[in-house]
Each structure stands twice: as C-alpha cells, then as structure tokens.
Amino acid sequence: MFPNDAQRPDPDLLLANVQAQDRKEARGKLRIYFGASAGVGKTFGMLAAACKLHAQGQQLLVGVIETHGRSETAAMLEGLPLLPLKAVQYRGKTLSEFDLDAALAHQPALILMDELAHSNAPGSRHPKRWQDVEDLLGAGIDVFTTINVQHLDSLNDVVGGITGIRVAETVPDTVFDQADEVVLVDIPADELLARLKSGKVYQEQQAERAAQNFFRKGNLIALRELALRRTADRIGDDVRAYRVEKSIAAIWKTDAALLACIGPRPGGEHVVRSTARLAGQLGAEWHAIYIETPSLQQLPGAQREQILQTLKLAQDLGASTAVLSASDIAAAAVEYARSHNLSKIMLGRGHRSWPWRTPHIRRIAHYAPDIDLTEIGAAASDTAAGAPSAPGLGQGGINGMPAKRRLWKYGWAGAASVATALVATPLFAFLDLANIAMLFLLVVVLVALRFGRGPSVVATCVSVACFDFFFVPPRFTFAISDAQYLVTFAVMLAVGLITGHLTANLRFQARVASHRESRSRALYEFARELSGTLQTEQIFDITSRFVQRAFRAKATLLVPDADGRLLAPEAGMNDSLAAALDIGIAQWAFDRATSAGLGTDTLPASKLFYLPLVAPMRTRGVLAIEPESLRWILIPEQRQQLDAFAALAAIALERVHYIEVAQNALVNMESERLRNSLLAALSHDLRTPLTSLVGVSETLVRSRPALDPAQLAYAHTLHDESIRMSALVSNLLDMARIQSGEVTFNLEWQTLEEVVGSALRASGSQLKRHQVITQLEPNLPLLRFDAVLLERVLCNLLENAAKYTPEGSRIVIAAKAHGSVVNVMVYDNGPGLPLGRQEALFEKFTRGEKESTKTGVGLGLAICRAIVEAHGGTIDTCVSPEGGAGFVFSLALGTPPAMPELDLVQSEQ
Hints:
By secondary structure, the protein is α/β, with parallel strands linked by helices. The protein has 30 helices and 24 strands. The strands form six sheets. A five-stranded parallel β-sheet has the order 2-5-6-1-7, sandwiched between helices.
C-alpha cells in the first residue's frame, strides 16, 4: 500500500502548480548574472548574451548599463538600442536615472538593467531599481540584470563581517530566489586581482584604494565561496521544484540533505546533535521528525515533554522539524524523506525486540533501497544508565505509561470478555456456537475502539478461552471432544487479532483526522470572524477568545502607539495574565519581530509567550499568551497553527489601520473640497466690492479740488489696504482654481528676462524700501511657460522676501542654466527661514511666523509650488549666499521652435 500511495501525485498540488505556471507565463522572465564581486564580468557576460540575441533578431533595449570606464564593456554597447536616461534634480544636482515610464511605453521584449541593488534618486517612482524591475516583469517584459553577493539581504552582514565594509544597497532574497535563471559569473581570486591591477575593474586611483581594502585575496576567496554556495542553494530549490512538478518520488542525491529520526527513548538528543554536526561538516540542510504511533500516544506527559524538548533542540540547531502521525513508522519516515528529497536518514542504534518484529532500519531499507541509512551509536551516558528498551524509532524512550494506568485497561478488556460469556450462557440453548463466537468478536472490536490494540489482544485471548470453557463441549472444562474445534479456536483467535489491529488503526486515524479537522475549522472560523471586523477592539476580543479555545491559553493583544511603543490593553485582561505581563519583553519581541518568553531562547523563564504580529507592511503588535502547558507551545504543528493565527490577526490589524487611513483621507478630501468651494465663493463675492473700493480710493486721491493732507493720508491708506485685500482675494481665488483644475495654461516660448522685469514692476511698491539685484545668466535660452502665472510666482517670492526682511535688505533674483533645467533663485540677507519648518512653509495657510503682525494668510508659497509643479518643475528652499532665506525653482529646458530667417535687403546708395 505504501509504495503506490507515495508515488501517486497530489491533485491539489498539481492544480496549484498549474495555476502558478499560468501566472508565471503572464510575467516577464528574469535572468540574474550573479558574481562574488565587481570585476568578475557580470555586465560583460550580460551584454554578450544580449548581442547574440540582438543578432538573432530579438527586440531588446538597453535600460541602464554602468561601464565604470571599462573600454571592453563600452565597446559591447555598440549597435544595441539605448534608452535615454531621465534627468532627476536632487539638492541642486542633476542625476541621470533609468526612465521606467519610457521603458514601459517602448514595451521591448527584453531590457538590460545593470546593478539590480542600485538606489534611485529621490523623486523617482520607486526608491530601488529592483522595484523598477518588478514593474517591468509585471508588464511582461523580460529582464537581464546583475548583482554581487554582498547585495543580498541575508548575506549583507556576513560579507560585512568578512570585508569590514557593509554596503547599504541590498536586494531581498525573494527577488533572487524567484528569478527564472541565475547565471554564476566566476573567476579565480588571482585572476580578478590581475584584472584590477591592469585597470579593467576600476580607474587607477580607485583601483589602488580597492586593492588596499575590499579587494584583498582572502576577502575574494571568502566571497567566491559564498557566491558558489548561494548559487548551489538556488539550484537545489530548482531541483525540488522540478521534482514536485514532474511528480518524481525517487531521491535525487544532488546534495547531502539529512533526516534525523527521533524516538521516545533517552538517546534522542544524541541523534540530534550527531546529525547537526554531520550537517555542519557537509554544509547541508537537515530535518528532524518524530513519528507518533497509536502506542506512543500513551506515553506519560513528562516523556512527551522530553520529546518536544528534543525537537526544540533540533530546531535551535538549524533543523526543520515536524511531528507526524502514522501507524507505520518506517513508511512515514520514507515518505517524508522522499517528499523533501532527503538522501540520508540518521537513526539511533536499534534495540532488542521480539524475533518476529523487523527492526525499523531494515524496514526502511526495504521500502527505500535508494536512501542511505546511518545508524548512530548510543551516547556513553545512555549506555551507562542502561535505559530500558521500548518500541520507537532509534534511540528513544520507553512505551510506558505507568503500570497502574495500563493494567486497568487490560483488566477491563478481560472482564468484558468474561461478562460476554456470562451473558451468553443463558442464551446457549437458543444460539448456535457461530453466533456466540460473533458476540465475542463484537466485544473485541468494541475493546479495540475504546482501549486500543494491546487490550484488544487480551480480549481476543480471553474470549477464545471463555468460548472453549463455557460453550464448547464438554462444557466448563478446557478439554475438547472434537479436533475441529482447534481450527475454530485458531480462526477465532486470528480474526480477533486482525479485527482488533484494524480497529485500533482506524481509531488512531480517526483521532488524527479529527485533530486536523479541528485545526482547520478553528482557522476557518477565526478568519471568518476577523473578515468582518472594523475596529481594533473587535480584533482583540476575537483573537483572545479563539486562542483560549484552540490552545487552552489566556491571551491578549498589545498594539503600538504613534511612536512605536506598545500599550497594554486598558480593560478585558485576565488578572493572572495582567500580573505576568512584561511590557519590556513584549517591546523586545515587537522591535525585532522575533518571538520571546516562554519556550524560546530569549527570557524563557517568563510565564508568557510573546509572538510578534508581522503583517506584510510592518509589525502590527504582539500577541501575549499564557498557556496551560508548555507542550502547547513546543509542538511544531501547534506552533504552526499559532503562527497562522498571529498572521491572520496581523493582517486584520493592518486592514483596519488602512481603513482608518482611507476614512481620514476621505474626510480630508471632502474638507479640502469644501474649503476650496468656500474660498471660491468668498473670493468671487469679495472681488466686486474690493474693486469698487480701489476705484473710489483712487478717485479720492485724484479728486479736485485736492483733499487736505489729513484726508489725503486717509485716502492713500484706503487705497493701499484695498490693493492688499484685492491681492489676498486673488490669491484665494487662484488657489481654489488651481486645486479644482480650472486653470488653463497659456504655454509659450519666451524669455525669462521679460517675466522677471514685469514681476519687479508689479511688486515695486513692496520693494521700494529694499535693494533688489538681478543676476541673470547671459544668453539664457527660451523657456516654455505661462507668463502670467510665472509672474505670480516671482511676485509672491519677492513680496515674501520684502515682508520678512528689514528695510534696506538685499534681495537677489538669479537664474542659471544647469544641465537640462534652468534654476531660478530668490534669496535675501534677512533673518532666514525657521529651522525644521522648511517643507511645511509650502503648505496652505502656513506662515513663516505663527504669531505676527505681518499681513497675509499663508497661501503665497503654496500657490508658487502648485504653479511650478504644473509646469513640470520643482520648487524648494535653499541656502542663501547672503545668509538669509532662499528659494529655488527649476524649469525644464526644451527645444524651442526654429526662428524664421529674415531676408535683409541692403539698399544701394
């Protein structure tokens, strides 16, 4: 039965593989050229492959290639189509970055992306280049890329410890593991050092520094070993995936993966430690399992705790652990080894057993002749102790529940058979012997269902004896009158033993299925309850209730505040749980996303087990559990289910968090829309009377006969305040129009000098008590902008400078072409900007001085940013050369239309 079942493909697994394959075909293919360090030839190898494909007619595009001054690499780019890089402004500098939008628009079949771990400049769509690659793959574009071993997240600290240099740019290991192809580019350390000296890796000065630090021979050898091992691990994953896809049951000995089998006898720890040492010497992965049979389920609690502690030791030593339920130990061990492609099974030395019982090691050899078997000798301490033998796998403990607990089951089994004989005796005159034998077989089945295999054997033997004594003539004696009854006794004994064995197995399998169904139902109900939660308090109650029911434990959730500090629940927590709760341990588990407390290596003396709730985006809290028994934490299956509960709770907390974020965003949007509507309404309603006030004040100033000096001063004040209020209303109206998208831009090619001059004239009244200096670079090119709106930007910046600087201060307007943009600066020598609030100044209704007699409502800079960004530019604060405040905005250079040629006709004199 076992071989056929083991080789039969799992239909659910096959369906999952088909669905995964369909999703994979819709994505682009990722090939990674992987090396130990710079200079091994990753980029060159990638370009060589690209040139070959290009010659075959493959449509491809060079997204970004870093040649580092290597002429050989640069020569490989000849003839390949290049994607222009995008200019990104950062702190006054122009950086060239990969243009993701342009690449997606081109939609090539293949694109080359050098240096996968590169960090993009601020302002790019993604902070990391590998995230750009994910977008390309999602669009169905194949990608060739390169990466060094020190840029893998899991090896970053290891490489830093070897070389003394820890790089900041890393790539998640999942990107590497999910790549369709990994090409290892490898050369010996001496050859790489020779390339470095000849200038084929870095320029001369940079090469000298590299040779003194990173590029030491010992470092390169260690990095080469790491790269080879990581590639081998990746290939091992590919082998396992292929075996699953093709339903291959046979062991492929591509590596020395080990399986340690732990039994109930005391030498289990010795098996685990010996396997761990061998795995370390071979550099191989290893697993540790404990197979629980019906008889082993009767072990006393202390012995079961010892088995779980042994499994915990294996897990701490780096093993993947599991507890399996099966009636055939050898078959279960072989099935696990085949499913995980484990080529070597490690067992403790077998003990003496009954002659008719085949040792486990021989049965495993029979089931799997292709698997290597290693028998580990007993430890000296175990040999000296003279541990008693018992059934189990290898060196393990005794099958012994206490004698008193076992004997009463056997006593009940024998008593049931005797009672059946007494009940059937009055019926002897009415029933045939065959029917009476059926009654005894029924009792054997019932005993097997209730008490298990051992008591059923006792019931079978006692039943045969009672049948002979009470019913077979001559009655009430064990003598028999007919030899045929010997056959009856033998058949009855055999049927009873077989029936009891099968019934006990069925009972065991039913219990296992019941436990599995119970775990699945608990997960389903927990997920269903959490799916409808909208508040964090609901998640608290549901999680506590389900953990208490499923794990026989008291539990509570701890969630962080805005500063990441965990807060204890205010109410609803059990008194004993509240007394044992340690916020310090919980905070440690939260900060490191690692379990702590009971049953772990971190503060194991704690009464509580602290499990972090790790969601896809971040850790959302900590689940604190007080179990009734430590065993519930140590059993691998229970721990896996608890991890599943924690993951569901973490996702629910994250979902509720984003629901609150979405609700707040919706409220803010509605508030913003309402505010803009009110601004627009007020602006329209105020503009007409303000225009009238301006006109009346101008009329009063110019009236004839002229007003007396006092009245004229009032008229001038009325005029100035009306102009100021009119400008304020214009700002409000412009802000509302820009936010609503009602502004139509009149973009034309024109000179910057003209709009600067018009802005100075418009702001003349505010600037008359200041010294204004223009420093425009000669021969600035034409720019494409809306002159009216750009004049508003300059006016707001100039008026802002005039408002917050004392009389006589210097205000400078400067403009200079820089790369693909023109930077325009407005700065002064005044008191400067408030520290720490530079970015906040561009928000609406934010003023430079919170409490000030200066006029304004804080919209000027917000309008400037809205207008500049609508032109495709950026605006920010900057360091003033004069020591005061400074603002700089950039406008993109373009290609102005060609000027018409003028025919100059020179008249003859």
